[in-house]
Design brief:
Blueprint lengths: L19 E3 L3 E3 L19 E4 L2 E4 H8 L16 E4 L2 E4 L18 E4 L2 E4 H4 L6
Antiparallel strand pairs: 1-2, 3-4, 5-6, 7-8
Protein name: ISL2 protein
GO molecular function, one term: DNA-binding transcription factor activity, RNA polymerase II-specific
InterPro entries: ISL1/2-like, ISL1/2-like_LIM1, Znf_LIM
Length: about 130
């Protein structure tokens, strides 16, 4: 469909012999498909992520929109093991008691008070209700 498509990047008509299509309905000039954050060209050799009509490289998409550790606020890599407490996610090394600093391990009892994790020794016995 060269000549009929409009570039999602610059808005111009695509008359080039090649275009890049991301998702079923967004097309770009080869030179226009770049990460909205860092400007890295995004072509058929790399992964492209879309958000609100903008294209991002994997690194910037993860940094801007990915889940972050509730303690250190850093992103997670695909190989990271995580711990969860309600809707909070933590790196294993960040899953520590806020009072004594002891690392909490799978199976340990803990309390989540506001944003603070507390081990059993520091939060005391469970309250009724």
């Amino acid at each position: 469909r060269p000549g009929l498509a409009l570039c999602a990047g610059c808005g111009g008509r695509i008359q080039d012999p090649f275009l890049l299509r991301v998702s079923p309905d967004l097309e770009w000039h080869v030179a226009c498909l770049k990460c909205a954050e860092c400007g890295q060209p995004l072509d058929e050799t790399c992964t492209c992520f879309l958000r609100d009509g903008k294209a991002y490289c994997k690194r910037d998409y993860s940094r801007l929109f990915g889940i972050k550790c509730a303690q250190c606020r850093a992103s997670f890599s695909s190989s990271d093991l995580v711990m969860r407490a309600r809707d909070h996610v933590y790196h294993l090394e960040c899953f520590r008691c806020a009072a004594c600093g002891r690392q909490l391990l799978p199976g340990d009892q803990f309390c989540l008070r506001e944003r603070d994790l507390l081990c059993r020794a520091d939060h005391g016995p469970p309250h009724d209700g």
